[in-house]
């Protein structure tokens, strides 16, 4: 590997070259030089007008492998992630079987060695993610699990939540919960509010999220430890977490890109591509989430990549499955935010922050560092279609639409790939 990126603008607040236009010489998987000089290279990439950041990391993706490989498998998920600009992904345990044994963790880690991106398995907190009996979390940590979560299911059992917070303190482990009181959201298919009333659909109230967050914060204050709230979606959730941080509690959170650019009004046409959980909320909630990112209350932006086959989406709205396939459209979606959230604000939310929360090595653009990089063009246009889509699933509201913002290349150590 001997590559020269010519005249790229670096976007990395951790780098001394932040906001500078320079040449980056990559040799044998490392950044050999960052300057304005010409370097001999086997491959020269003209990067004028392009932005170069540390490699992106997604903290919430379904790869469905093993068990539902017809929706996505590790290979297709890795390919979609790389083309979306990611060099690392943390995968949810909601597979079949659930990632809850050392063998399950080792299966993901062993298969991921052959891919361009790094895949980090998160393991289940409770057996089969049913919320009733704890997994062997200490053994799973030793096997390589980077965090513990029941994924798309909330940890509803209060005693299990309390014990998990206590047990994980022995290893400094991270507990992740998607805050939802499922008794309040049962049979619901979208946000409870004016739009759900107009459409005649059962709503899912924000109260279901707030109650769970309040419960977990009280348990955190009581037991100690640390907790990460996954996929928060409402104004009140932002306020609760903001207050908890001010009190010194070890709490972090993320928001999906979908909740930053869409609202429940996008469901007026009963388009099941917009059906996700937690559901799209109101414009008031969306603006509060943006403000939460600006103020540092929300630490991470995730894709919440949830592949679904057509049989799960081409149904009556209330019967359709939840989820959007979001890895490849992360950059165009972020750029849709425009001045609300400029790249200088969101870049850490998709690079260093998720890795820091998971205690992973932090890539940065400095000489003699491993080259973990994402090169992207914020103005290039492309279309997500059957030719460009690397995922096995097509459940995206952007399918067959022209999008602005394209990843041109990713580098992960000795592996480098460009995209046309």
Automatic annotation (TrEMBL):
<dbReference type="GO" id="GO:0004038">
    <property type="term" value="F:allantoinase activity"/>
</dbReference>
<protein>
    <submittedName>
        <fullName>Dihydroorotase</fullName>
    </submittedName>
</protein>
<keyword id="KW-0665">Pyrimidine biosynthesis</keyword>
<dbReference type="GO" id="GO:0004151">
    <property type="term" value="F:dihydroorotase activity"/>
</dbReference>
<dbReference type="InterPro" id="IPR050138">
    <property type="entry name" value="DHOase/Allantoinase_Hydrolase"/>
</dbReference>
<dbReference type="InterPro" id="IPR024403">
    <property type="entry name" value="DHOase_cat"/>
</dbReference>
<dbReference type="InterPro" id="IPR004722">
    <property type="entry name" value="DHOase"/>
</dbReference>
<dbReference type="GO" id="GO:0005737">
    <property type="term" value="C:cytoplasm"/>
</dbReference>
<dbReference type="GO" id="GO:0046872">
    <property type="term" value="F:metal ion binding"/>
</dbReference>
<dbReference type="GO" id="GO:0006145">
    <property type="term" value="P:purine nucleobase catabolic process"/>
</dbReference>
<dbReference type="InterPro" id="IPR011059">
    <property type="entry name" value="Metal-dep_hydrolase_composite"/>
</dbReference>
<feature type="domain" description="Dihydroorotase catalytic">
    <location>
        <begin position="51"/>
        <end position="237"/>
    </location>
</feature>
<dbReference type="Pfam" id="PF12890">
    <property type="entry name" value="DHOase"/>
</dbReference>
<dbReference type="InterPro" id="IPR032466">
    <property type="entry name" value="Metal_Hydrolase"/>
</dbReference>
<dbReference type="GO" id="GO:0006221">
    <property type="term" value="P:pyrimidine nucleotide biosynthetic process"/>
</dbReference>
């Amino acid at each position: 590997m001997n590559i020269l990126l010519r005249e790229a603008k670096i976007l990395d607040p951790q780098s001394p070259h932040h906001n500078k236009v320079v040449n980056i010489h990559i040799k044998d998987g490392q950044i050999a030089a960052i300057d304005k000089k010409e370097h001999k290279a086997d491959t020269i990439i003209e990067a004028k007008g392009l932005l170069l950041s540390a490699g992106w990391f997604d903290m919430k993706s379904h790869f469905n492998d093993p068990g539902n490989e017809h929706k996505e498998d590790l290979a297709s998920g890795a390919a979609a992630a790389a083309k979306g600009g990611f060099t690392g992904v943390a995968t949810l345990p909601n597979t079949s079987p659930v990632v809850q044994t050392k063998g399950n963790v080792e299966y993901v880690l062993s298969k991921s060695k052959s891919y361009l991106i790094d895949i980090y398995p998160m393991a289940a907190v409770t057996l089969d993610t049913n919320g009733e009996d704890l997994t062997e979390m200490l053994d799973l940590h030793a096997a390589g699990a980077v965090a513990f979560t029941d994924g798309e299911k909330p940890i509803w059992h209060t005693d299990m939540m309390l014990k998990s917070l206590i047990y994980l303190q022995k290893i400094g482990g991270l507990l992740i919960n998607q805050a939802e009181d499922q008794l309040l959201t049962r049979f619901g298919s979208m946000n409870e509010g004016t739009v759900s009333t107009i459409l005649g659909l059962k709503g899912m109230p924000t109260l279901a999220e707030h109650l769970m967050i309040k419960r977990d914060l009280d348990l955190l204050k009581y037991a100690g430890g640390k907790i990460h709230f996954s996929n928060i979606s409402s104004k009140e959730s932002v306020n609760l977490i903001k207050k908890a941080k001010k009190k010194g509690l070890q709490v972090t959170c993320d928001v999906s890109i979908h909740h930053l650019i869409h609202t429940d009004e996008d469901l007026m046409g009963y388009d099941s591509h917009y059906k996700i959980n937690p559901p799209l909320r109101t414009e008031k909630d969306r603006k509060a989430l943006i403000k939460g990112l600006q103020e540092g209350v929300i630490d991470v932006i995730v894709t919440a990549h949830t592949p679904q086959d057509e049989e799960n989406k081409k149904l009556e709205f209330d019967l359709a499955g939840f989820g959007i396939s979001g890895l490849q459209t992360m950059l165009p979606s972020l750029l849709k935010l425009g001045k609300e959230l400029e790249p200088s604000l969101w870049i850490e939310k998709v690079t260093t922050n998720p890795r820091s929360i998971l205690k992973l090595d932090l890539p940065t653009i400095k000489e003699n560092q491993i080259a973990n990089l994402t090169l992207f063009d914020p103005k290039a246009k492309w279309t997500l279609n059957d030719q460009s889509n690397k995922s096995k699933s097509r459940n995206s509201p952007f399918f067959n639409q022209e999008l602005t913002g394209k990843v041109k290349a990713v580098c992960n150590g000795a592996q480098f790939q460009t995209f046309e």
